[in-house]
Design brief:
The chain has about 425 residues and is α+β, with helices and mostly antiparallel strands. The chain is built from eleven helices and 17 strands. The strands form four sheets. Strands 10-11-12-13-14-17 form a six-stranded mixed β-sheet, with helices on both faces. Helix 2 packs antiparallel against helix 3. The longest helix has 18 residues. It is globular, with a radius of gyration of 22 Å.
């Protein structure tokens, strides 16, 4: 365990004044009502099948409720629109809020059924690994119950837990749904490994801010946690570990990464899809799936592994189905956040008054059996909080253990 920093249990911290949907112009209640109508009409027009999960009558009910309570408060109306879009049910239909919602300076993740702090600013590093108990006195279970109104419900339960974990540290959803009392700060109650309660006063930061986060790295050491992008190759003993965090620069970086793998001549290969939320399906096939298939030294049972989890979504989920179908890979970890049979591909439109961008899923895909709600791993392994606190990757270690049974071929082809 990394050496804990000495600091008070109550920390006041803020990177800037909270930004309450500051990219949206100030609108009248009537202008918001017009945007509500435009949202419903746009979803019906642009979605592949808007009423495949929710009834039109239910969406119209939510729209009428939003229009009856319309007021000139941006973040409250934004939550009402968010709720309507989420009701459609798939993860590709949403209001684009990533550059609008203010965030508190901690990140939580669902681990073993609870929400634990897994990233924070350095000022709150002592809280890494702590369990979230309440927000402004509201038990986390009650907060989750309220936030589920903003979560698509037609992917799967792993996706729901992943999405709601993000909402638990976003200011506008917490305030708009009555979980916190103020927009400029809230008290997060955390429980330490020795069952002590810590009340942490936090202030949200504007979405334009770029705070530096820390996390617990290998060996339990405190380490900077930069957002992973693209491909990162490392050797773990004689096993190649390819972190496929995103599709960024995949065409440019892919050939060099595979050349480095060939030069290293690893015993086995682990490809990690757990952070990958999607991108170009054809690019993933060309630069990940097919190169893995071609290398017969690695493309063997017990020698090729794919790691998946709730954040594995969209094209990344589909490329995992490709790996299962085209290669002898063993899938390890947790189920994917995306269902293999569902609605994907972003089709965008803009609301007339607020300028909010809305995505509506435009295609229906079938990449598995009709009753499959996720790509299920061959070996289901969940990260344990004890491992996490000590910098151990439970799923990766399970794959590395299995890889020790991989025997090298006498010849190398491909």
């Amino acid at each position: 365990m990394f050496a804990r920093l000495l600091m008070a249990a109550l920390i006041m911290f803020g990177l800037s004044t909270p930004c309450s949907a500051d990219t949206i112009p100030e609108l009248t209640a009537e202008q918001w009502r017009e945007d509500v109508d435009a949202l419903v009409a746009g979803l019906e027009k642009n979605h592949r099948d808007a009423w495949n999960f929710v009834s039109r009558a239910e969406v119209l009910r939510l729209a009428d409720e939003a229009k009856r309570t319309a007021r000139a408060e941006n973040h409250m109306m934004l939550i009402a629109l968010h709720r309507i879009a989420a009701a459609i049910g798939d993860g590709h239909t949403f209001i684009a809020v990533s550059n609008i919602y203010a965030r508190y300076p901690i990140v939580v993740r669902s681990i073993e059924g609870d929400f634990h702090v897994t990233r924070s600013t350095s000022a709150n590093a002592e809280r890494l690994g702590d369990r979230l108990v309440a927000i402004d006195g509201v038990p986390v279970e009650k907060a989750v119950e309220k936030l589920m109104a903003l979560v698509p419900r037609n992917e799967n339960r792993w996706h729901e837990r992943h999405v709601v974990a993000g909402l638990l540290t976003q200011a506008e959803p917490l305030h708009g749904l009555g979980i916190v009392r103020r927009m400029d700060g809230a008290t997060f109650t955390l429980e330490t490994p020795d069952n002590r309660r810590v009340h942490l006063w936090l202030m949200p930061y504007a979405p334009s801010a770029q705070p530096t986060y820390v996390t617990i790295g290998r060996g339990g050491r405190l380490t900077a946690d930069a957002a992973a992008r693209g491909l990162t190759l490392s050797m773990l003993g004689d096993v190649a570990y390819l972190d496929f965090a995103s599709y960024h620069a995949l065409k440019e970086d892919g050939p060099g990464v595979w050349a480095a793998i060939d030069k290293a001549r690893p015993r086995a290969l682990v490809i990690d899809f757990r952070k990958n939320g999607g991108g170009s399906l054809p690019a993933g096939r060309q630069h990940i799936v097919y190169p893995a298939w071609e290398r017969s030294q690695l493309n063997r049972e017990g020698c090729l592994f794919v790691l998946t989890g709730p954040a594995t979504f969209s094209a990344a989920m589909t490329n995992v189905t490709d790996m299962r179908r085209e290669t002898e890979a063993t899938i390890v970890g947790l189920p994917t956040g995306a269902r293999p049979n569902g609605y994907q591909e972003n089709g965008w439109f803009t609301l007339p008054n607020s300028g909010l961008r809305v995505s509506a899923a435009q295609r229906r895909y079938r990449f598995g059996a009709t009753d499959e709600t996720a790509v299920m791993p061959d070996l289901q392994v969940e990260q344990t909080i004890a491992d996490w606190r000590n910098g151990r990757d439970t799923a990766l270690n399970a794959a590395l253990s299995k890889a020790q049974d991989c025997k090298r071929l006498n010849r190398v082809t491909g």
